[in-house]
């Protein structure tokens, strides 16, 4: 079985290894947050976000995945405090490497709890 960047990303996130997940991205990667309207630019910004996420999400697990041309969608469930959430990681590739990550989360109350916890760990954007 051939490993893909999306499969390697999933494995790294599942073991809580934010650095390994980040290293799969190009230097000028882009991250679209479910909370912040303006994208984060660069792999090091993404690294800080993923390091915070592995601290904030509890009981994280991927539940499904879908693949299409140039991209991959990983569906997940987790908790932030007492709030259960569902979300998706949308991964886009460029030249065999991950280039972009978009995260969407529901419900709003869980996204709000996530925003509050992440704000304590990250500088303002």
TrEMBL record:
Protein name per the record: Nuclear transport factor 2 family protein
Positions of the SnoaL-like domain: 7-100
Pfam families, per database record: SnoaL_2
């Amino acid at each position: 079985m051939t490993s893909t960047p999306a499969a390697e990303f999933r494995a790294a996130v599942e073991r809580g290894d934010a650095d390994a997940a980040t290293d799969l991205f190009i230097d000028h990667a882009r991250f679209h947050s479910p909370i912040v309207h303006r994208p984060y630019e660069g792999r090091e910004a993404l690294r800080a976000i993923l390091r915070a996420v592995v601290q904030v999400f509890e009981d994280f697990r991927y539940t499904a995945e879908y693949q299409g041309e140039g991209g991959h969608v990983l569906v997940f469930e987790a908790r932030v405090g007492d709030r259960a959430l569902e979300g998706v990681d949308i991964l886009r590739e460029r030249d065999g490497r991950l280039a972009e990550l978009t995260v969407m989360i529901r419900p709003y109350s869980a996204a709000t709890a996530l925003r509050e916890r992440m704000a304590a760990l990250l500088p303002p954007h």
